[in-house]
Amino acid sequence: MAIAIAALVSQEPDLLRLFAAYHLTLGIDKIFLYFDYPLQTLKLANSLPNSVECIPCSPQFWLAQQTKRPELLTGRIIAIRKDAIARARLLGIDALAFIDSDEFLYSDAFFPDIITAHLKCFDAVCLLPCEAVHDTESLSGLPFSQRYFKVLPPLGSAHPVETLYPQLGVEISKDGFMGHRQGKSIISTDARIPGLDRNHRPTLANGQPPSIVDDAILLHFDGIDFRSWQNKWRKRLAGNGKKERLTPQRHRQIEQIEQAIAKGEEAERMLYESYFFLTHDRLAHGIALNAIRQPSRLGELMTKARTLAREFQVAGRL
User: Fold this and answer.
1) Residues 6+ away with beta carbon under 8 Å from 259
2) Dihedral pair phi/psi, residue 108, rounded to 5°
3) What is the DSSP string of 56-111?
4) Which pLDDT value is given to residue 70?
5) Distance CA 52, CA 4 (A)
6) Under a CB-based contact definition with an 8 Å cutoff, are residues 148 and 291 in contact?
7) DSSP-assigned letter for residue 205
8) What is the DSSP string of 104-158?
9) Are strands 159-160 and 182-183 parallel, antiparallel or unpaired?
10) How many angstroms separate the CA atoms of 30 and 97, rounded?
11) Which residue has the higher pLDDT, 258 or 105?
């Protein structure tokens, strides 16, 4: 089975070479590196293995996507994901993972096993991006799985930040928590990668069927400990990351992180722990509030999604 990863990168050549070597050693068959600033690819022209493809997001690239270069980073990432899936299909690749800059060098050491197991369980459902939180500093004695997934709550059961987060011991500002006005659900599972979509429900809004992909599955997960998180944001705020045109939510998030950095490491750690939601009290309270969901819910959702997908196929609607 062929496995590929794709990343939107802005790192220096030495780090990218290390990144490529690390993942190829794990058994990854193909790596797509997308460069938001095309001149970066010149530095890497002859320094990476043949299994690493460097793709400059040049004007020609955006012309091929039949769109102008999106001003917001989120828009560029969405377009790049679509292009990466298309490339994976052409190469006969079974699974594709999209890795953001903050996941560099922190992906799971058993990455091929994760996707192999995932394909066996959820072969009919295309996963939309979701993030797994894996705090390597506080794994022992947790109430259940070591892996947590941040997802938007089901429709009709969103938790307003102003009421949910204070109950969980998280101090919030008038702008919400980390720029969010609604709380995200956090799901724990004993599976390495659970089968759920971005909204923790089958994609059935307005009568649309779940997305079906026969030959490529897109996964997105996070794995970053406190020191890595701290270093990532300090470097980002000291570099050119703030020059990007960001969403208002991201601007508020950056402001909160800047304020924590100004106060010192204790404030940074408090913000990190609040953001990643990893304390026994918060987990227990979140479960009681139904803001953190048990693994059994995942199986129910995906069974329903697969059943509906088959019904749509029989009806000729896919």
Assistant:
1) 267
2) -65, 140
3) E--HHHHHHTTSPPPSSHHHHHHHHHHHHHHHHHHTT-SEEEEE-GGGTT-S-TTH
4) 86
5) 10
6) no
7) G
8) TT-S-TTHHHHHHHHHHH-TT-PPPP-EEE--TTS-TT-SS-SEEEEEPPPTT--
9) antiparallel
10) 11
11) 258
d(CA 132, CA 146): 10
Q: How far apart are the two ends of the chain, measured CA to CA in Å?
A: 26
What digits encode the pLDDT tens for the residues 199-211? 333 332 333 333 3
What is the value of pTM for the model shown?
0.45
| CA nearest neighbour of 105 among 227, 198, 241 | 227
Q: Which two tokens stand for residue 111?
A: 């990455």
Q: Please, is 27 exposed, middle or buried when counting C-beta atoms within 10 Å of its C-beta (0-12, 13-18, 19+)? A: middle
What is the three-class DSSP state of 240?
Answer: coil
Contacts for 86 with CB less than 8 Å, ≥ 6 apart: none
Q: Which amino acid is at 292?
A: I
User: Quick check: 29 pLDDT over 50?
Assistant: yes
CA dist 33 and 20 (Å) reads 9
